[in-house]
Design a protein that fits this description.
CATH architecture of the largest domain: 2-Layer Sandwich
Number of strands: 8
Strand order of the largest sheet: 2-3-1-4
CATH class of the largest domain: Alpha Beta
CATH topology of the largest domain: Alpha-Beta Plaits
Order of helices and strands: EHEEHEHEHEEHEH
Helix content: 25-40%
Radius of gyration: 16 Å
Distance between the termini: 15 Å
Number of domains: 2
Shape: globular
Structural class: alpha+beta
Largest sheet: 4 strands, antiparallel
Length: 183
């Protein structure tokens, strides 16, 4: 059975979208998941599921979370190998960029086409202080300023209008997840 890292989008951000870690673990187990673990309270879940298809695993988890919480929880799953690759790409991009600011990774439900990836990367040329690099289903945002994510024009909201559902984590979280759960 495959092990996935499920990244839950937009939980624990406000009063109406609470999903405590214990409830995540219980709902994931109710969906047939085993070896369930979470990391911090932002929706990072390691789970082994019988579903061999990533899309089916996401669908099963989303249904379980909706049943438990009463609201939709977009779930984006990656394999342990994908997670390791995303973290390695993040490290490589940080090293080559020479930027002192923050780096965020938006993991998309669907891989953008080559044409869309080029369009996304080209958009960053318009915005001073922001660089975007597309690597598979991961879109890396590198910022010149450490505290500028909320002012970033190329953040997750901008990306989702182009690529559909995505969820982001900062590079520190991606690196930690890969160290804990990657290959």
């Amino acid at each position: 059975m495959p092990t996935y890292i499920a990244l839950l989008r937009a939980i624990n951000l406000g009063a109406t979208r609470k999903f405590p870690k214990d409830a995540i673990i219980a709902a994931t187990a109710a969906a047939g998941g085993t070896d369930v673990a979470t990391y911090i309270n932002t929706g990072n879940v390691r789970v082994t599921l019988p579903q061999r298809s990533r899309a089916k695993a996401e669908s099963v988890l989303e249904a379980a979370y909706r049943a438990d919480r009463g609201f939709e929880v977009i779930t984006i799953a990656v394999t342990t190998d994908e997670l390791t690759e995303i973290a390695a790409d993040a490290a490589d991009l940080a090293a080559e960029s020479g930027r002192a600011g923050m780096q965020y990774v938006s993991v998309c439900k669907h891989r953008p086409s080559a044409a869309l990836a080029r369009e996304i990367e080209a958009a960053a040329e318009v915005y001073d202080g922001e660089r975007v690099a597309v690597r598979g289903r991961a879109i890396h945002l590198l910022l010149d300023q450490r505290d500028s994510y909320h002012q970033a024009r190329l953040g997750n909201t901008w990306l989702e209008k182009r690529v559909g559902p995505a969820t982001n984590r900062n590079r520190t979280v991606i690196t930690t997840l890969a160290e804990r759960w990657g290959r």
